[in-house]
Structures are given as structure tokens and as C-alpha cells.
Amino acid sequence: MRLLIDVGNTSLKAVLWHNQQAQPADLNNLPWPQITEVVYACVGRSDLLKKLLAQAAKHHIACYEATVTKTLQGLSCAYEQVSNLGIDRWLALIAGFTLHPNQACILVDAGTATTIDVLTSEGQHLGGWILPGLDLMTSSLTQNTQRVFDDEKTPFENQLGKNTPNGLKNGALVATIGAVEQAKLHLGVQNSTKTVQIVFAGGYGALLQQQFEGSIFDSLLVMKGLNFWRDLSKTS
Ligand SMILES: Nc1ncnc2c1ncn2[C@@H]1O[C@H](COP(=O)(O)OP(=O)(O)OP(=O)(O)O)[C@@H](O)[C@H]1O
Ligand SMILES: CC(C)(CO)[C@@H](O)C(=O)NCCC(=O)O
Ligand SMILES: [K+]
């Protein structure tokens, strides 16, 4: 059984991976005797991660930190400075590459930030974008203007706004949708028979997924990437 840990800027997420399945992990009551290894990825700072790694060491369990490399099996990273790419983005790419072989993908992780990464059917990462997440888009406007206000009960909708909270929330949503549309242009899906698999993850992934026909939402995308990273980096 593997303990998989994904440390973001806002939260730490962990799952237990056993028999090709993810089970929720209770961090206050981990089944250490059954855990064979700890695999983790970290873009943020975390005292909780330090505590978990210390506990693993006490139980003599090997810990592996996922890193970005120029290539991994048939997958290649677009960044010149590969260590600058967020590991969560690399893991989403690894998951897309492994789960959708020979298929062009757009990986969208919509949390605190929204990241969009473009992957060709040959496994080449073409690059991507980092946008403020939907909440950051709206809060940066309410905090830096006098008259732009939000409203808890206003949903994000792909429509024109006819009041301030609508204008604000819908603006954030369509900006994000527009960025995903721009990503498609880099894969030449217009005027061609090529298809692209758009995969959404993260807190706002399910909402965004509804905006793109044929797209999928996978709440475990980064965790799956972490699990594949460990398998693939063992054999490369
Ligand atoms: N149903 C939902 N469950 C969790 N978060 C949601 C949901 N709907 C919207 N959100 C928003 O998604 C964001 C959390 O996203 P996510 O869980 O992907 O973490 P994250 O922001 O990526 O954190 P980190 O950067 O720490 O990984 C928050 O802004 C939250 O308001
Ligand atoms: C963009 C975030 C914060 C998303 O979690 C993370 O992937 C990160 O810290 N990235 C580093 C910068 C980059 O990916 O170019
Ligand atoms: K994240």
C-alpha cells in the first residue's frame, strides 16, 4: 500500500493507493504497518508534510519526492528550466500521457490557481499557462476596487452579466473558458479530424468540465500522476 501526498499552496491532500484503487487517508490514524512507501509532491510549504515524513522515517518506510525531469519514458517537458515547472502540472501531464496514450490532451487543474497544459499525441508537452483561480480572480477585483462586489449565492455562469456579482463571476468563468479554447489552437484541432481530450481536475474542475463537450473531470488526476510517476521513474 502506497501513501500518496500532494501538497499544494492551500491544502495537503493524501490518499492510500492499494489494489489499483485510491482510498481516503485519515492522517491522524494512518495504517503505517501496511504502508510500503510514501510518494509525495510539493509546490507549497507544509509542516504537516514534515510530520508525516518523520513518522514514515520512524517506521522505516521509504519516501520518494516526485520531481520534474526533461523526459519521462515517452513524455517530454516544454520548460527549458524543468525544475521551474510546478510538480502538480508535471503529474497531471504524466496522468494524461498514461491514461490517454497517443491522444492529444489539455490538462486543466482549477484550484487556487488554474493551470492549463498542452500535450501532443506524441507525448510532447508544448507548454501551458498559469491563471488566477476563479476565487482569486474575483477576490482580486473586489479587494482592489471600490464598487465591484461579490455575492455568495451568485453562481459562475457562461452568460453576460447584468448585475455586478454576475459580471464579476461570469467574467472569471469566461476568461478561464477562453484560455482553454486558446489552448486547443496550439494542437491544431480546428480544420482537422484530430481530437483532443480535455481533462479537468481541482476544486473548480467539475464546474468547468460542464462547459466542454466530450471533456472529463478526474478529481484524482494529480494523485494518479503521482502513482504513475513512481512506477515510471523506477523503470527509466
Ligand atoms: N466542490 C468543491 N470542493 C472543493 N473546492 C471547491 C469546490 N468548488 C469550488 N471549489 C474551490 O476550489 C478551490 C480548491 O481547489 P483544490 O481542491 O484543487 O485545491 P487547490 O486550490 O489546488 O489547493 P492547492 O493549491 O493547495 O493544491 C477553492 O478555491 C474552492 O473554493
Ligand atoms: C501554479 C501552481 C501554483 C499551481 O499549483 C504550481 O504549479 C506552481 O507553483 N508552479 C510553479 C511555476 C510554474 O509551473 O511555472
Ligand atoms: K493543486
Keywords, separated by commas or semicolons:
alpha/beta, Nucleotidyltransferase, domain 5, 5-stranded mixed beta sheet, globular, binds adenosine-5'-triphosphate, binds pantothenoic acid, binds potassium ion
Overview of the molecule:
By secondary structure, this protein is α/β, with parallel strands linked by helices. The protein has two domains: 2-65; 81-234, 2-Layer Sandwich (Nucleotidyltransferase, domain 5). It contains six helices and twelve strands. The strands form three sheets. Strands 3-2-1-4-5 form a five-stranded mixed β-sheet, sandwiched between helices. It has a five-stranded mixed β-sheet with strand order 10-9-8-11-12, with helices on both faces. Strand 11 (196-201), helix 5 and strand 12 form a beta-alpha-beta unit. The longest helix is centred in the last third of the chain and has 22 residues, at 164-185. The model has no long low-confidence stretch (mean pLDDT 96). Potassium ion (K) binds at residues 8, 88, 109, 111, 202. Pantothenoic acid (PAU) is lined by residues 8-9, 43, 84-86, 88-89, 113, 115, 130.
Question: Quick gist of this model?
Answer:
This protein has 236 residues and is α/β, with parallel strands linked by helices. The chain has six helices and twelve strands.
